[in-house]
Design brief:
Helix content is 71%, strand content 4%. The chain is mostly helical. The radius of gyration is 21 Å and the shape is globular. The two termini are 25 Å apart.
């Protein structure tokens, strides 16, 4: 049997995974006295970034087609405000509001996908309009921060899935039982489903084909316009799922909520090996990209002396590094042809 050659895409993913483990191991060594090496610290990465993981999965699907979606942060803010205002002012059923949020995601994706796919308007322009619309509608609903006090929603947010077999004693001698929230389960289910969709379904293969070459995809009989529209619908629906997770973490709605989250999602996808030009990437890489993003923030907090803005600087440096790597690998691939 011939061994499968390691291509540049696999190498990019391997670099991302190794980088995460190196960073996390360094944190465990340097900040072990501050509890960085505790299992709960890692689980907190998943809890705090569950919403971002859902959004990054959707962003990866859009970027595979060669597009981009910068409206996701404003859509999450709109989702959170709908949930908060709906429960606190309209006294609506939380389940009905979650369904409404998903419907908003579908509508958002249909409009943006139609403009990008069928009207062939630049994705950046379309989603920038979506970003302004989302923030504007959030402010129309309410300009103040709205805290959620609904008992059912609160109990869902506080629900813990514990791991008693991994219990440990902290620095103060108290027994700690590691746990995750329901948001982590939702995010991991989204990750698995999108991974399977991209790997084993016709639609998943269509996303790669359209991103690789629209003309070639068209000659193969693929409906390029329809595929692009579906990608944006999927992204917005996953964003709305992420919005529900985000709201479960924050238990509030705010006009400025999730500001800059679209950049975190794009950075996580690129660091995870998704090409900005499309055709290459996977959600496993995006998952590790999200973990790297979260690890950087945790390291900055564990240091205690650095400003929070240093996490943005570190992510920006990594983003530039991976973009340069992608460019180098692309040129090497061209030179071999």
């Amino acid at each position: 049997m011939k061994r499968k050659k390691i291509n540049s895409n696999t190498l990019l993913l391997a670099i991302t995974i190794v980088l995460f483990f190196v960073m996390y191991l360094a944190g465990c060594i340097i900040y072990s006295s501050k509890g960085f090496s505790n299992l709960q610290t890692f689980l907190n990465l998943l809890i705090n970034n569950a919403g971002l993981l859902c959004v990054a999965c959707g962003m990866t699907c859009v970027m595979l087609t060669g597009g981009i979606d910068i409206s996701v942060g404003s859509l999450i803010a709109l989702d959170c405000m709908v949930l908060a205002v709906g429960m606190e002012q309209w006294q609506a059923n939380p389940v009905a509001l979650c369904i409404l949020v998903l419907a908003i995601g579908v509508l958002f994706g249909l409009v943006q996908g139609f403009c990008v796919g069928y009207l062939q308007i630049q994705p950046f322009i379309v989603t920038m309009a979506g970003m302004f619309f989302g923030r504007g509608m959030t402010a129309v609903l309410c300009t103040d921060q709205v805290s959620i006090s609904n008992e059912w929603f609160k109990s869902l947010a506080q629900f813990k899935i514990v791991f008693p077999f991994a219990a440990y004693t902290n620095r103060k001698g108290a027994l700690q039982i590691p746990f995750i929230r329901i948001t982590v389960v939702i995010a991991l289910l989204v990750l698995i489903l999108i991974f399977l969709m991209l790997r084993y379904t016709k639609f998943g293969r269509s996303l790669y084909a359209v991103g690789g070459s629209e003309s070639s995809a068209g000659m193969m009989g693929l409906d390029v316009k329809r595929t692009k529209m579906k990608a944006y619908v999927l992204s917005s629906v996953l964003c709305s799922i992420g919005g529900i997770c985000y709201c479960l973490n924050t238990m509030s709605g705010n006009v400025q909520q999730a500001t800059g989250l679209e950049m975190d999602a794009i950075a996580s996808s690129v660091i995870g090996g998704t090409l900005l030009t499309g055709g290459v990437g996977n959600v496993v890489g995006s998952f590790f990209g999200v973990l790297i993003n979260g690890t950087i923030s945790t390291l900055v907090k564990a240091n205690g002396k650095l400003l929070s803005s240093w996490s943005n600087i570190a992510v920006a440096a990594l983003l530039c590094f991976f973009i340069v790597l992608q460019s180098v690998f692309a040129k090497l691939k061209e030179s071999k042809k």
